[in-house]
Amino acid sequence: MIVMAVMNGFDRDLQSRIVASIGAVRGFSSAGALAYTPALDTAILATPGVTASSPEIHLSALLRATHAHGGIPAASEAEVTAVDLNKKIRTSPLNKQLLAGSALPSSHEILLGSALAEKLAVDIGDSVEAVLLFPSSEFPFAQFGAAPVQLTLKVSGLYRTGYYEVDAAGVILPIETVRPLFGLPTHEAHVIEIGVTSPKEAQAVTERLQTRFGNEGLYFRSWRDMRAPLFRAVDLEKRVMALILLLFGVVAVFSVLSALTATAVEKRRELAVLRAMGMNRFGVASVLLTAGSICAGLGVLLGSALSIGGHLLITRSNFFRLPADVYDLDRLPSEWSTALFASSAVVLFFLALLAATFPAIVQARKAPSEALREE
User: How many distinct structural domains can be found in the chain?
Assistant: First the structure.
């Protein structure tokens, strides 16, 4: 149970980080570009389960620090997301992801992922030189094609989503800074990020949006759709681990079987005497079944105590703290599932009780004279 709780904790933590970094639902255009008009925004918000929407424009970039710390200024590739900040803070927890001293960027300011800032060796208040490249193959409306734009931007803050892929390459710019640089129309966008009432509702909201806007050349993907291979791998890993733990339980059941069989063989003389004194076969079987149920019950209680204690130790103590700069986690995650715990305890108890029926039936069917003769 401790192993499954930790795996569930990692799964939950991974899901929350992915939703925080890429959004719960995203909308795309089959033409590459879409017109994010007030009418489209209103129609999206009218969909049940939708709380907010935000337009995005995606760019490629090469960033370089304007100053050097003992050598050549560091440079790095980056993925730039130009957003409407007033809407972005309603579709994602961006405000909560800001590090201490950070602020949302204004015109000609930039917000860097925490890992990217470390690679560039820059901090809040520093400046970076940026070469922005517009993907003209995806955006045929760009008047200047794929011609790069170079400018200097001030770092207004750093943010950390906890998802290293985003933190190591993510850059956020105000959408009103990017559109004039490439001569884009007011309502043009690449992606629509959509906030939902709960990440669990993302799939249902995706289906509603697809039904409503599918005929208009738009298509929508939930956070699970966008990371489907990753979550298939996680689900497969959890199933394999559950199977391995089930095999451990079967081994324990065979231990109960061997112990009760040995006990029945050692006590066959006493059982034969009880049969001779008038105890029926059901009585003999009930003696061994009672012993098996006590053994199974004690095992389940001890295992339950260890599982609950281990979960509390992981979640409420500092014994399992992790280096956040390595794992992006400050402690080992654990998520308790009462349903899984109860079902596992019941299944293992009845499997152990089932194992006790074999020696019980064998001894109950044996005649007293035969048992005494064997003795």
Answer: 2
What is the distance, to the nearest Å, from the Cα of residue 32 to the centroid of all Cα atoms in its chain?
29
Domain closes at, from 172, 204, 226: 226
pLDDT in tens, 21-78: 788 899 998 877 888 999 999 999 999 999 999 999 999 899 998 876 555 668 889 9
User: Is 261 found in the same domain as 174?
Assistant: no
For the ranges 222-231, 256-265, 330-339, the one whose mean pLDDT is highest: 222-231
Q: Residue 130: give the domain boundaries.
A: 22-226
In a domain, 82, yes or no: yes
Q: Are residues 104 and 236 in the same domain?
A: no
Same-domain status, 146 and 235: no
206-229 mean pLDDT: 89
